[in-house]
Design brief:
Blueprint (H helix, E strand, L loop, with lengths): L10 E4 L5 E7 L5 E5 L9 H12 L4 E4 L16 H15 L4 E6 L1 H12 L4 E7 L5 H6 L5 H10 L1 E4 L8 E4 H7 L15 E6 L8 H9 L5 E6 L9 H18 L1
Parallel strand pairs: 3-4, 3-5, 5-6, 6-9, 9-10
Antiparallel strand pairs: 1-2, 2-4, 7-8
Helix pairs in contact: 1-8, 2-3
Length: 257
């Protein structure tokens, strides 16, 4: 499905405060595609590269980039939160893309794509969420913390939790929780009318598949579809799952022109 990726040095988008976002961009015609990676992931992940390969073969504009504190961008991981990473997405969209965009958001990126769609409704041609995780700081972290863990993160400013993909723990700062509360999207009407496709594995042990149905219910638009894959986990990177992603990307691209 995908040719071996070229190892290219990323370009850099300068931000204020001597920060920058590392990115790769393809030129092309038609509706652009913008990939938003997951929490602690980067723009070189399998799903981003598969989507980029499709865009390249079809002559479509494409952008993938790292948020601050991720991948090859500047900044410390623990300094970021939902608001700052949303700001990074908006900066990348405004400076590096033109015209309507299809946003493809993986996990955290699925939350950020909703924030971007609310902030730039005229720039959104469609949204594709892959194990999208809106409100995870409140519903999947804080709600599951014991009282001792809640006291620890407030007192220490950070908490370390087991990482399913590494021996090194995942660290979550207290400000990620408090900032997340300013960005909650599943508590009321989510005023997005662009077409939305939500893909989610029913064996996802990090973000329950019911998050996808809750997101669909919160969206005010009618063109919303949820696709549940019974044997898929959170990574959603097996060949048949990647093929489904590309099928949805082709569908939305054909629809919006």
């Amino acid at each position: 499905m995908m040719a071996a990726p070229e190892q290219l040095t990323p370009e850099k988008l300068a931000l204020e405060g001597d920060h920058f976002l590392a990115y790769h961009r393809l030129s092309g015609t038609g509706t652009g595609i913008m990939f938003l990676c997951g929490h602690g992931s980067d723009m070189d992940g399998t799903k981003a590269l598969v989507a980029e390969d499709w865009a390249k073969r079809n002559g479509r504009p494409f952008l993938r980039f790292d948020y601050r504190g991720h991948g090859q961008s500047s900044g410390a991981f623990l300094d970021g939160n939902i608001s700052s990473w949303t700001s990074d997405c908006l900066a990348a969209m405004d400076a590096l893309t033109e015209g309507p965009q299809i946003l493809v958001g993986s996990s955290l990126g699925g939350w950020l794509m909703l924030n971007v769609a609310l902030a730039r409704p005229d720039r959104i041609a469609g949204l594709i969420g892959i194990a999208a995780a809106p409100d995870f700081t409140e519903d999947l972290l804080w709600a599951e913390f014991s009282e001792a863990q809640r006291q620890q993160i407030e007192a220490d400013g950070v908490i370390a939790l087991p990482n399913p993909y590494s021996e090194d723990p995942v660290k979550y700062p207290w400000h990620l929780i408090t900032d997340g509360r300013k960005n909650l999207r599943l508590r009321g009407g989510l005023n997005i009318t662009a077409p939305v496709r939500l893909l989610h594995g029913m064996k996802d042990e990090e973000v329950p598949w019911k998050t996808a149905t809750a997101t669909a219910e919160a969206l005010t638009g009618d063109d919303v579809e949820v696709t549940l894959v019974k044997n898929a986990g959170h990574r959603f990177s097996e060949p048949d799952q990647l093929a489904l992603l590309i099928a949805k990307l082709e569908e939305l691209s054909d629809r919006v022109g």
